[in-house]
Amino acid sequence: MEIEEDFNPEDFYKIAENIYNKLNTSTIPYKEAWIRTAISRLYYSIFLYLRNMIGYKKYHKRDIHQIVSEILIDKGGLFTKIGYKLSEIREIRNTADYNTDKTASLELLEHVITTINDMFEKARKTKYFVLLKKNVVFAYRIS
Fold it and tell me: Is the pLDDT confidence value at 133 over 70?
């Protein structure tokens, strides 16, 4: 069975935001697990958004995370800042997903939310992303 419609990566952001709001308004069990889950969803919200923005939506190999960051960093200007932030958030996400001897705090989650909000804001301000691939220029309109 296949998924028929395109998924909006920003829905992952909404899920993480719901988790954050629950963590702030009530006492819920497995608090740290929820924090780690929210960090992971936040990373994937911006990663998938940026991956799609630069035209790599159909690329599904393991190195895609590194590729997206490098393309953005190499592009310069605002894209470089976004690329470096993506790398930073990926490291945080990897720690949250795989490193159980480090604590994931609500403050860390708040940092990730703030950073990703800033990244989305910057990415949305761009009208075009131009990628040079095999001596052909591709222009991607950002809507």
Answer: no
Residues with Cβ within 8 Å of residue 109, at least 6 apart in sequence: 20, 23, 35, 38, 39
Beta bridge partners of 133: 136
Burial 62-75 (b: 16+ CB within 10 A, else e): eeebeebbebbbeb
Is 128's pLDDT higher than 70?
no
Phi, psi (5° rounding) for residue 57? -60, -35
The answer to whether domain 10-141 has CATH 1.20.120.330 is yes
How far apart CA 124 and CA 97 sit, in angstroms, is 28
Give domain limits for the chain: 10-141
**Dihedral sign, Cα of residue 59, residue 71, residue 55, residue 57:** positive
